[in-house]
Amino acid sequence: MQIDPRRHLPIYLQIAEAIRGGVAAGTYRPGEALPSLRELAVTLRVNPNTVQRAYDELSREGIVEARRGLGLFVAERAPSDARPRAVEEVRAALERGIRIGLAAGLAPESIAADFRQVLATATRSIPSPVIPAAPPKLRRNPKEADA
């Protein structure tokens, strides 16, 4: 997962965005355990309260669900909820960028060319902002362990 403190998005929202993207992309499947709050905080070198805020955000959205005594798991309907949200966020970011460019006097053709260049660079060099799949030591859905 990529956390960029220079980015204008709070760190807890960057974490939530990365997990949401992982769910939408299938990196995390319904019923799969997420890293514990403390484990993710240590991995990302952030305050545990920051991870808690991200997890709270995802819980409010219905992407994850807490299971008493077991931890936090991807909700069963999460993939169908996460993908439209990701599309909405991408479109909103594109629209903001286009509006900024137009307000600065850039021609639509120039904005489109810049978009194509950024997209090409991103698909080549920017690693996916997704948390890696849960390592074997992390809990899985207890039902899967019996299967």
What is the CA-based Rg, rounded? 17 Å
- For this structure, what is the CATH class? Mainly Alpha
The computed structural class is mainly alpha
> In one word, what is the shape?
elongated
The CATH topology: Arc Repressor Mutant, subunit A
Largest sheet, spatial ordering of strands: 1-2
The number of helical elements comes to 6
List the uncertain runs: 132-142
Strand content: 5-15%
CATH-assigned homologous superfamily: Winged helix-like DNA-binding domain superfamily/Winged helix DNA-binding domain
Number of strands: 2
Overall structural domain count: 1
Quickly give the CATH architecture. Answer: Orthogonal Bundle
Fraction of helical residues: 55-70%
How do the SSEs run, as a string of H and E? HHHEEHHH
Average the pLDDT over all residues and give the rounded result: 81
Describe the model:
The chain has 147 residues and is mainly α. It has one domain (11-129): Arc Repressor Mutant, subunit A, CATH 1.10.10. Helices cover 59% and strands 5% of the residues. It has helices at 11-25, 37-44, 48-61, 78-103, 108-125, 142-146; strands at residues 64-67, 71-74. A two-stranded antiparallel sheet has the order 1-2. A hairpin with a 3-residue loop joins β1 and β2. α1 (11-25) crosses α3 and α1 crosses α4.
Note the topology.
Blueprint: H1 11-25, H2 37-44, H3 48-61, E1 64-67, E2 71-74, H4 78-103, H5 108-125, H6 142-146
Antiparallel strand pairs: 1-2
Helix pairs in contact: 1-3, 1-4, 2-3
